[in-house]
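Predict the 3D structure for this chain.
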Amino acid sequence: MKPNQAVDHSSLYHRATRHFAWPFLVATSSAILASGFLLDREILYFNLSYAWIVAWLLLLEIGVPYRSSWRKTDGQLGPDLGHTILNKGLVQLLIVQLIGLGIVGANDSSTVATLPLPIQIIIGLVVSEIGLYGAHRLAHEWPLLWRCHAVHHSVKKLWLVNTGRFHFIDSLASVLASVPFLLLSGISMDAIVWVSAITAYLGVLTHCNVDMDCGWLNYVFNTPNLHRWHHSDKRDIGNNNYGENLMLWDILF
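Done. Predicted structure below.
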């Protein structure tokens, strides 16, 4: 997918946004969450950090859209919001309940949990991606699973609001496929919160209608550039880039 040629790509503001918006938003959202950990208010500050990134993307979608035509209404605002609220809300509620009941929890006494937090986060991102990548790939290759995942690919444009346009079963499958790997990895609960937060940040960024050029970051993370290819109408192009956060397993397999 090529950006809208009607947009002025030569302005300093646009060039700066293209190259620095993605790392800026990931870094600043992470800084807000880090403040929450210092204040022992990590859940509150995660919500604030997510609101921060959403607010910025709403402004950037107006100022530097990838495609101006995607800003036009397509009559799908209601379904987009409905799917997002239903999926994000119910899945998060399920996870909170499982943690509260002690069914899901990290082993903070494990050897891995004693490693520096950044190392634990990297471990968590890599191992959880096994389940996320596997579930996503199967959703494309198994007809029965594709019936659910097709809801996500039914969108005609990518923008902030349809980030969560998934069938509930599809969303639940991704969680159930990735959480066991996180728990078995032995990372601490703090690291699990960080992995979950980064997944949320990258998820909303991949769907935004903002003109970004992520450069070498495309080889490491799932970016808007890669996810637009994944949503291509051409199956040989779209049936690639299955990574949720990282491109590691896409590169290997």
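The two ends are 24 Å apart (CA to CA).
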